[in-house]
Protein backbone atom coordinates (compact mmCIF):
# COMPACT_ATOMS: atom_id res chain seq x y z
CA UNK A 1 0.00 0.00 0.00
CA UNK A 2 1.42 3.37 -0.91
CA UNK A 3 1.57 6.33 1.39
CA UNK A 4 -0.99 8.84 0.08
CA UNK A 5 0.31 11.63 2.31
CA UNK A 6 3.50 11.95 0.25
CA UNK A 7 1.51 12.24 -2.99
CA UNK A 8 0.24 15.73 -2.21
CA UNK A 9 -3.52 15.17 -2.56
CA UNK A 10 -6.16 12.82 -1.24
CA UNK A 11 -9.17 11.93 -3.39
CA UNK A 12 -11.98 11.28 -0.92
CA UNK A 13 -15.60 10.44 -1.56
CA UNK A 14 -17.84 12.83 0.35
CA UNK A 15 -21.49 11.88 0.88
CA UNK A 16 -24.01 14.55 1.81
CA UNK A 17 -27.37 13.79 3.49
CA UNK A 18 -26.81 10.07 3.93
CA UNK A 19 -25.62 9.41 0.39
CA UNK A 20 -28.22 11.39 -1.58
CA UNK A 21 -25.35 13.34 -3.13
CA UNK A 22 -21.84 11.88 -3.36
CA UNK A 23 -18.88 13.64 -4.87
CA UNK A 24 -15.16 12.85 -5.09
CA UNK A 25 -13.11 15.81 -3.89
CA UNK A 26 -9.35 16.22 -3.77
CA UNK A 27 -7.89 17.51 -0.51
CA UNK A 28 -4.42 18.43 0.69
CA UNK A 29 -3.67 16.07 3.62
CA UNK A 30 -2.20 18.97 5.62
CA UNK A 31 -5.39 21.06 5.77
CA UNK A 32 -7.52 21.09 8.89
CA UNK A 33 -10.90 19.37 9.00
CA UNK A 34 -12.57 22.77 9.46
CA UNK A 35 -11.15 23.92 6.10
CA UNK A 36 -12.14 20.61 4.48
CA UNK A 37 -15.74 21.24 5.59
CA UNK A 38 -15.57 24.67 3.97
CA UNK A 39 -14.35 23.09 0.70
CA UNK A 40 -17.22 20.58 0.82
CA UNK A 41 -19.73 23.42 1.26
CA UNK A 42 -18.21 25.24 -1.73
CA UNK A 43 -18.12 22.22 -4.07
CA UNK A 44 -21.38 20.47 -3.12
CA UNK A 45 -24.35 22.84 -3.39
CA UNK A 46 -26.66 20.45 -1.47
CA UNK A 47 -24.58 21.02 1.68
CA UNK A 48 -25.37 24.74 2.00
CA UNK A 49 -28.77 24.49 3.67
CA UNK A 50 -28.11 25.15 7.38
CA UNK A 51 -25.52 26.72 9.66
CA UNK A 52 -22.00 25.49 8.80
CA UNK A 53 -21.05 25.09 12.48
CA UNK A 54 -23.75 22.43 12.90
CA UNK A 55 -22.01 20.10 10.43
CA UNK A 56 -18.85 18.02 10.47
CA UNK A 57 -17.05 15.20 8.67
CA UNK A 58 -17.69 11.62 9.74
CA UNK A 59 -15.30 8.85 8.64
CA UNK A 60 -17.40 5.77 7.91
CA UNK A 61 -15.78 2.48 8.93
CA UNK A 62 -15.70 -0.35 6.39
CA UNK A 63 -17.30 -2.61 9.01
CA UNK A 64 -20.88 -1.33 9.54
CA UNK A 65 -20.96 -2.75 13.09
CA UNK A 66 -18.17 -0.40 14.19
CA UNK A 67 -19.85 2.75 12.88
CA UNK A 68 -17.14 5.33 12.40
CA UNK A 69 -15.45 8.35 13.92
CA UNK A 70 -16.07 12.09 13.87
CA UNK A 71 -13.14 14.13 12.59
CA UNK A 72 -12.15 16.95 14.95
CA UNK A 73 -12.12 20.42 13.38
CA UNK A 74 -8.69 21.25 14.81
CA UNK A 75 -6.91 18.14 13.42
CA UNK A 76 -5.52 17.73 9.91
CA UNK A 77 -6.81 15.14 7.45
CA UNK A 78 -3.38 13.47 7.57
CA UNK A 79 -3.82 12.84 11.30
CA UNK A 80 -6.55 10.28 10.53
CA UNK A 81 -4.39 8.27 8.06
CA UNK A 82 -6.98 8.56 5.31
CA UNK A 83 -6.43 6.73 2.00
CA UNK A 84 -7.55 7.72 -1.46
CA UNK A 85 -11.11 6.48 -1.96
CA UNK A 86 -12.17 6.60 1.71
CA UNK A 87 -15.77 7.63 2.32
CA UNK A 88 -16.49 10.70 4.45
CA UNK A 89 -19.99 11.86 5.30
CA UNK A 90 -20.81 15.54 5.71
CA UNK A 91 -23.28 15.15 8.60
CA UNK A 92 -25.18 17.29 11.00
CA UNK A 93 -23.48 17.08 14.40
CA UNK A 94 -26.35 18.48 16.43
CA UNK A 95 -29.45 16.40 17.17
CA UNK A 96 -32.35 16.35 19.57
CA UNK A 97 -32.11 13.72 22.28
CA UNK A 98 -35.30 12.76 24.11
CA UNK A 99 -34.81 11.68 27.71
CA UNK A 100 -37.45 10.06 29.91
CA UNK A 101 -37.02 11.04 33.55
CA UNK A 102 -37.89 8.85 36.54
CA UNK A 103 -41.22 10.60 37.00
CA UNK A 104 -42.19 9.72 33.41
CA UNK A 105 -41.78 13.17 31.87
CA UNK A 106 -39.93 13.59 28.58
CA UNK A 107 -37.25 16.25 28.15
CA UNK A 108 -35.61 17.14 24.85
CA UNK A 109 -31.99 18.28 24.82
CA UNK A 110 -29.88 19.39 21.85
CA UNK A 111 -26.60 17.40 21.88
CA UNK A 112 -23.45 17.41 19.77
CA UNK A 113 -22.84 13.85 18.49
CA UNK A 114 -19.22 14.60 17.66
CA UNK A 115 -18.33 15.02 21.35
CA UNK A 116 -17.20 12.16 23.61
CA UNK A 117 -19.90 10.66 25.82
CA UNK A 118 -18.36 12.15 28.98
CA UNK A 119 -18.71 15.67 27.56
CA UNK A 120 -22.24 14.95 26.34
CA UNK A 121 -23.30 13.76 29.81
CA UNK A 122 -22.14 17.02 31.40
CA UNK A 123 -24.16 19.02 28.87
CA UNK A 124 -27.24 16.78 29.20
CA UNK A 125 -27.26 16.85 33.01
CA UNK A 126 -26.74 20.60 33.22
CA UNK A 127 -29.48 21.32 30.67
CA UNK A 128 -31.97 18.98 32.34
CA UNK A 129 -31.25 20.47 35.77
CA UNK A 130 -31.70 23.95 34.33
CA UNK A 131 -35.04 22.95 32.73
CA UNK A 132 -36.26 21.37 35.97
CA UNK A 133 -35.42 24.36 38.16
CA UNK A 134 -36.63 27.00 35.68
CA UNK A 135 -39.90 25.21 35.10
CA UNK A 136 -40.71 24.65 38.77
CA UNK A 137 -40.29 27.63 41.09
CA UNK A 138 -41.47 25.61 44.10
CA UNK A 139 -38.70 23.04 43.56
CA UNK A 140 -36.05 25.73 43.41
CA UNK A 141 -37.24 27.25 46.72
CA UNK A 142 -37.27 24.05 48.84
CA UNK A 143 -34.72 23.44 51.57
CA UNK A 144 -32.46 20.41 51.44
CA UNK A 145 -33.46 17.43 53.58
CA UNK A 146 -32.05 17.17 57.10
CA UNK A 147 -28.82 15.24 57.22
CA UNK A 148 -29.19 12.13 59.38
CA UNK A 149 -26.11 11.09 61.37
CA UNK A 150 -25.67 7.53 62.66
CA UNK A 151 -23.34 6.30 65.43
CA UNK A 152 -21.74 2.94 66.17
CA UNK A 153 -23.20 0.90 68.98
CA UNK A 154 -20.82 -0.58 71.57
CA UNK A 155 -21.01 -4.15 70.22
CA UNK A 156 -19.96 -3.08 66.76
CA UNK A 157 -17.01 -1.04 68.08
CA UNK A 158 -15.68 -3.99 70.07
CA UNK A 159 -15.85 -6.20 66.97
CA UNK A 160 -14.09 -3.70 64.68
CA UNK A 161 -11.11 -3.07 66.97
CA UNK A 162 -9.16 -0.15 68.44
CA UNK A 163 -8.67 1.76 65.18
CA UNK A 164 -12.38 2.55 65.09
CA UNK A 165 -12.47 3.62 68.76
CA UNK A 166 -9.47 5.94 68.41
CA UNK A 167 -11.48 9.14 67.91
CA UNK A 168 -14.42 8.39 70.17
CA UNK A 169 -17.88 8.33 68.64
CA UNK A 170 -17.91 7.38 64.97
CA UNK A 171 -20.54 7.48 62.22
CA UNK A 172 -22.34 4.21 61.47
CA UNK A 173 -25.50 3.09 59.65
CA UNK A 174 -26.77 1.10 62.68
CA UNK A 175 -28.13 3.59 65.18
CA UNK A 176 -29.44 7.16 64.90
CA UNK A 177 -27.47 9.89 66.62
CA UNK A 178 -29.14 11.61 69.62
From TrEMBL:
Domain of life: Eukaryota
InterPro entries with a match to the protein in the record: FERM_f0
Cellular component GO terms held in the UniProt record: cytoplasm; focal adhesion; plasma membrane
Gene Ontology MF terms: integrin binding
All residue ranges annotated as the Talin N-terminal F0 domain in the record: 10-92
GO BP: actin cytoskeleton organization; cell-cell adhesion
Coiled-coil portions: none
Pfam families: FERM_f0
PANTHER family for this protein: RHEA, ISOFORM B, TALIN
Listed name of the protein: Talin-2-like
Organism per entry: Tropilaelaps mercedesae
Amino acid sequence: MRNDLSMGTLSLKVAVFGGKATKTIQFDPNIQVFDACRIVREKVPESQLDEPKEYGLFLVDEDPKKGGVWLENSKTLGYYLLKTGDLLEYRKKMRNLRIRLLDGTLKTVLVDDSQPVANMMVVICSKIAKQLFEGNDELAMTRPRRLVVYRFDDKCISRLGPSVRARGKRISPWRLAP
